[in-house]
Amino acid sequence: MEMSGFTEEQLTVREAIQKICAQFPNEYWQQHDQSETDPKELHAALAADGWLGIALPEEFGGAGLGISEATMMLQTISQSGAGMAGAQSIHANVYATQPLARFGNQDQLESTIPNIISGKWRVCFGVTEPNSGLDTLKLRTTATRKGDKYVITGQKIWITCAQVASKMILLARTTPLEEVKKSSEGLSMFCIDIDRSNPALELKKIKKMGGRAVDANEVFFDHYEVPENSLIGEEGQGFKIILHGMNAERCLLAGEALGLGYAAVDKAAKYARERVVFGRPIGKNQAIAHPLADAYMNLESAKLASYHAARLYDRSKTDKSITTHAVGVACNSAKYLAAEAAFKACERAVMTHGGMGYAMEYDVERYLRECFVPRIAPVSRSVLLEKLPRCSLNLHHFPIFSPVQVFGLTMIALGK
């Protein structure tokens, strides 16, 4: 990847994360992919050096950096050969904690966040449900107040790292949909313990195509009780609170997709230089070189969009001239472009390897299996293509969706 134009902070992050990731070679990720074993050693190594708090406030033990630096961190992890699985093992710890840091109560700020940063507790994100999908406002999981507790009943799906997490950031309905004036009302956000010994909680692991080193789950709540201080912010304001982390997530996922794409192109270029057929390296043939050059340029273009989006996100906190709409367009466009560029790069890496691209030892088959994640989640490419023209191009030939619905903020959280 061309590194010109990045800030000193971003380059420092990249160098430090590369040193950590060098401890985990491709063989490590091959084994964890095949055995479906959590990469707890990577999580521990990143926690030991304080990187899980990269974008959290310094007063809670975080580094106080921005999403621009966090995006670089996730890209570097993915690009090291860890791929989407390695990045997703800490993904929620970075972005799902953003609303918690901003709206959490004193106990959550003083105990929960430091334990997440230290690596003692891992986090998963509970929003997506099997019957609502992208229509987050119609989710059915309820949290009913009973004395000094909330009783949770419902189901979540595609919850990554639930098998190893200690905490879940959960979105549930505290007021029935038919009793609110707006569908965005009556949702509340919680930071709850995951007590696997409690019969009111059940986790079912989902077998999946890629990213097998991190677990994905169905989670069932059957009158699962949590203390009232699990509530984040005010009751009924959960949807507004959760929006605080969604555009950040788009940037992080764009970075992860970029890392996967660059890793694939690097593998393919190396193979093309070394593989000799008909008396010369196959990389000297335009049929090999040109598709890789095209994939590389797509990655470079998506890189510019991704870090522009992250920069806008960070600056919007202090620069009021940067609108929420502008940030939404940038972050969702970046996620889309990076995901598409990664898909092209991974597919062409497999084809460059020919038959060996089908072999596990060359890694590119693993990259191809994983590159579908950013195309699907947290909002699919088809939804972005359908909705962005209505909001940004004034193409209102179908019913109009609000900017809140469009940009980000209903999701299919594969791995969240």
From TrEMBL:
Similarity-based family: Belongs to the acyl-CoA dehydrogenase family.
Entry cofactors: FAD
Protein name: Acyl-CoA dehydrogenase
Matches recorded under InterPro entries: Acyl-CoA_Oxase/DH_mid-dom, Acyl-CoA_Oxase/DH_mid-dom_sf, AcylCo_DH-like_C, AcylCo_DH/oxidase_C, AcylCoA_DH/ox_N, AcylCoA_DH/ox_N_sf, AcylCoA_DH/oxidase_NM_dom_sf
Domain Acyl-CoA dehydrogenase/oxidase C-terminal: 236-376
Acyl-CoA oxidase/dehydrogenase middle domain residues: 124-222
Positions of the Acyl-CoA dehydrogenase/oxidase N-terminal domain: 7-120
Keywords annotated in UniProt: FAD, Flavoprotein, Oxidoreductase
Record has Oxidoreductase as a keyword: yes
Alphabetical list of SUPFAM superfamilies matching this protein: Acyl-CoA dehydrogenase C-terminal domain-like, Acyl-CoA dehydrogenase NM domain-like
